[in-house]
Design goal:
The complex is a heterodimer. By secondary structure, chain A is mostly helical. Chain A is built from 11 helices and no strands. In chain A, helix 3 packs across helix 8, helix 3 crosses helix 11 and helix 9 packs antiparallel against helix 10. The relative contact order of chain A is 0.16. Chain B is mostly helical. In chain B, helix 1 packs antiparallel against helix 2, helix 6 packs across helix 7 and helix 9 crosses helix 10. Chain B has 2 domains: about 55 residues; about 170 residues, Cytochrome Bc1 Complex, Chain D, domain 2, CATH 1.10.760.10. A two-stranded antiparallel ribbon of chain B has the order 1-2. A two-stranded antiparallel ribbon of chain B has the order 3-4. Helix content of chain B is about 60%, strand content about 5%. The chains are: A mainly alpha, B mainly alpha. At the A-B interface, loops of A face helix 3 and helix 4 of B.
């Protein structure tokens, strides 16, 4: 039937193009629909939260925890509303994960408090007796890398138009100002809510331990 | 019988003997049907593998090709014009028709929706849940209500329902004196009861204090004189004239349903609406539990 097509490379190529282009259009077009845009009211991560996200990546939380609630009743009963693609708009990269040795964390901010996290990261068995999670005591002394997190915010603002305000601007001076005016008060609030004097003292001295950044990030997940 | 077939039978025989040796060596119990079937299968594979190979090798040696050659040939290699098998042709045409349907209609217009399936899953579960607990006894309802309360209500009202020292309504009693005074002062038409809006300042000053103390105290003893003003709508016993006005004496199903669906804005603060958060059975269970908080049961 298509004998003539086999003898005409040009028309054969046109046929192949038409078939692949059609499939491409119906696969790609839905991604421009409203439901694939950032969800309403979604704010970009603050620098402190970004620093916490770096800690999350560095200490490889993703190896045991996912951040994607699938639309099954068994999951929404336990973790809350199923995840929407628009919620990950400012996640670069997203940390969906594919392994649940521990629970999903996509909405952990809804049902845990900084105080709980402080006890849990210091000694998981103190709050969850059957837990097999290791303790992360080093996060209470190591300092979070705020410069890198700030640079990341500046970069995504410039490259991807992430809607940060004027406070995120290039340069050392802008960073110092942001740190003093916005970042440290935010960290102090978290540290106080964690109810540990050593953390509060560190933040008051202008040093942000990794755990404070991480908890700020976890609190943001809701 | 020619040489090829003999060779094949010998090879198959060798394999069968090898199988027997293995069975003997490993002491395999052939009375077990699974072992017996496996054993017979091994013999069948040996016979078939060599038998079929021998048949086709024989055919390649002796067959000569006949028929009409097709026009095309590739560097001197031609092919015969063979009839296409009918089943093959029809399935090819069928696939083409299906492909056109799937291209233009089947995929783009009937895309599978995971959320749709989720919604149906939840709906089916809720229907099953409603059916199972349609005639649940008091004990089941109370336990169910308690577990719902601990998850959905306790964050503001506290584990014991005491309202966490004024953070939310203290559910262990109907109303506090301050709350009654708040309603008297501001009036209320929050829940749209049939009796209509309650105007502000119907009773004032010392009368209001007395009424508030009487209502907050659970309506024990003699009613103050000003109570007659209230009784006009709320009933002499304060139970709300059978749903015409809010029940001031105790929490009842109507009141709890109203608060859950509309939320509440009062002197303490604002409670969000929980509409569509509970199935009818869950709401009934919750009401059952909340009523026990204040009745001391």
């Amino acid at each position: 039937m298509f004998h003539w097509l086999e003898k005409n490379p040009f028309f054969f190529a046109v046929g192949v193009f038409v078939v692949i282009a059609y499939a491409g259009i119906i696969e790609i077009l839905p991604n421009f629909a409203e439901r694939a845009r950032p969800v309403k009211g979604l704010k970009p991560y603050t620098v402190l939260e970004l620093a916490g996200k770096e800690v999350y990546k560095k200490d490889n939380c993703i190896a045991c925890h996912s951040q994607l609630i699938r639309p099954f009743k068994s999951e929404t009963d336990r973790y809350g509303q199923y995840s929407l693609s628009g919620e990950y708009a400012y996640d670069r990269p997203f940390l969906w994960g594919s392994k649940r040795t521990g629970p999903d964390l996509h909405r952990v901010g809804n049902y845990r408090t900084p105080d709980w996290h402080a006890n849990h990261m210091w000694d998981p068995k103190s709050v969850v007796p059957e837990s097999i999670m290791p303790a992360y005591k080093h996060q209470f002394t190591n300092l979070a890398d705020l410069e890198t997190a700030y640079a990341e915010a500046v970069t995504v603002k410039k490259v991807f138009n992430t809607p940060y305000g004027k406070e995120i601007a290039p340069g050392k001076a802008a960073f110092e100002k942001y740190k003093k005016d916005i970042l440290l008060p935010e960290a102090l609030k978290i540290a106080k809510a964690m109810k540990r004097d050593d953390l509060v003292k560190m933040v008051e001295q202008g040093k942000v331990p990794e755990i404070v950044a991480l908890v700020a990030y976890l609190e943001r997940l809701k | 019988m020619n040489g090829m077939i003999v060779k094949a039978l010998v090879m198959a025989g060798v394999l069968i003997v090898a199988t027997f040796v293995v069975v003997k060596q490993m002491n395999i119990d052939l009375s077990d049907p699974v072992n017996m079937i496996t054993f017979l299968g091994a013999i069948a594979i040996a016979v078939l593998a060599f038998g079929v190979s021998a048949k086709y090798m024989q055919q390649m040696k002796t067959d000569t090709a006949t028929g009409e050659l097709a026009e095309d040939n590739w560097d001197g290699i031609g092919e015969y014009k063979n009839e296409l098998p009918a089943g093959w042709s029809w399935s090819y045409v069928g696939t083409l028709i299906w492909a056109i349907w799937y291209f233009l209609w089947g995929y783009p217009l009937n895309e599978y929706s995971q959320i749709g399936e989720y919604n149906e899953e939840v709906k089916a579960y809720n229907a099953k849940f409603e059916k199972k607990h349609k005639n649940a006894d008091q004990k089941t309802l109370k336990a169910m209500g308690e577990s719902i309360f601990l998850v959905q209500c306790a964050p503001c009202h506290g584990d014991t329902g005491d309202g966490l020292s004024g953070k939310a309504h203290d559910l262990t009693k109907r109303m506090s004196k301050a709350q009654v005074l708040g309603v008297i002062k501001n009036g209320s038409h929050y829940f749209k009861y049939p009796m209509g809006a309650m105007p502000p300042n119907l009773v004032q000053g010392k009368d209001a204090e007395e009424v508030a103390a009487y209502v907050a105290g659970g309506m024990k003893g003699d009613a103050p004189k000003a109570w007659t003003t209230c009784a006009g709508c709320h009933g002499q016993d304060g139970t709300g004239n059978g749903g015409q006005a809010p029940n001031l004496k105790a929490f009842d199903d109507t009141l709890i349903h109203n608060v859950l669906t509309m939320g509440k804005k009062g002197s303490i603060g604002q409670m969000p609406s929980f509409v569509n958060r509970f199935t009818p059975v869950q709401e009934k269970a919750l009401a059952e539990f909340i009523k026990t908080l204040s009745s001391g049961k």
